[in-house]
């Protein structure tokens, strides 16, 4: 938590851990002092004055913000900033490194699976179990059925593509 002049009002242990802050930085310290420590520890490489000016501007405009930063050590931090009544500022910092890594792995796996499914010589058709509508058709299934995906996906087995549903 910061006051309207970017002085630290309160800080929790999670924030302290994320930025490896010493006990000497606590309530009453300035955000500038935190940023200077982050530069010394290699966790910040931007221009302190510009960074502070941007935060002070958001505080003055009472503009809530959410953004993500990459620390120099490879970690990814989500930051959510919100104005407080009385002119202060709450900033929540969350280490999302593992989450982002998991998302990237999932995306790579999905792309690999899509490539494999799309290029196998067997027809693959996926159907929603509840609505019985076709959800996916690969190239081989298009050839096998003799219809395009656009004619198949979203329809049920009872609905001929030549006869549009009512």
UniProtKB/TrEMBL annotation:
Xref: Gene3D superfamilies: PAS domain
Name of a matching Pfam family: PAS
Matching InterPro entries: Biofilm_reg_signaling, PAS, PAS-like_dom_sf, PAS_fold
Domain PAS: residue ranges: 109-156
NCBIfam families recorded: sensory_box
Stated name of the protein: PAS domain-containing protein
Biological source species: Bradyrhizobium japonicum
Lineage: Bacteria, Pseudomonadati, Pseudomonadota, Alphaproteobacteria, Hyphomicrobiales
């Amino acid at each position: 938590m910061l006051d309207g002049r970017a002085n630290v009002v309160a800080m929790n242990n999670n924030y302290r851990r994320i930025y490896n802050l010493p006990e000497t930085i606590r309530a009453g310290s300035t955000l500038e002092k935190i940023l200077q420590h982050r530069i010394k520890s290699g966790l910040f490489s931007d221009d302190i004055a510009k960074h502070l000016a941007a935060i002070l501007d958001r505080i003055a405009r009472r503009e809530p913000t959410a953004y993500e930063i990459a620390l120099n050590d490879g970690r990814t931090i989500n930051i959510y900033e919100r104005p407080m009544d009385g002119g202060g500022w709450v900033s929540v910092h969350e280490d999302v490194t593992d989450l982002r890594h998991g998302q990237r792995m999932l995306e790579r796996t999905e792309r690999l699976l899509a490539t494999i499914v799309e290029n196998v010589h067997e027809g693959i058709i996926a159907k929603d179990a509840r609505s019985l509508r076709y959800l996916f058709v690969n190239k081989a299934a298009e050839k096998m059925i003799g219809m395009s995906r656009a004619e198949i996906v979203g329809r049920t087995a009872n609905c001929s593509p030549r006869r549009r549903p009512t």
